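Chapter review. Work through the record for Hypoxia induced protein conserved region before attempting the end-of-chapter questions.
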Amino acid sequence: MQDKPLFILAALAVLVVMVILMVGVGGFAQGGEFNRKHGNRMMRWRIIAQAIAVALILIVVFIRGH
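Structure tokens for Hypoxia induced protein conserved region:
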């Protein structure tokens, strides 16, 4: 049960990735000033958040395996 907070943190990280991705894709679909100004930044944030989420998921899997 000591991995439960870590599991919740990993789930939240996945949700953060999803929100960033949806905002980035939505901005790309609409185009305009928001996409020109923030499109690349949103995708960089997504990559960083996704790396954190994957690392947390791997840690949870490692802890549950032992």
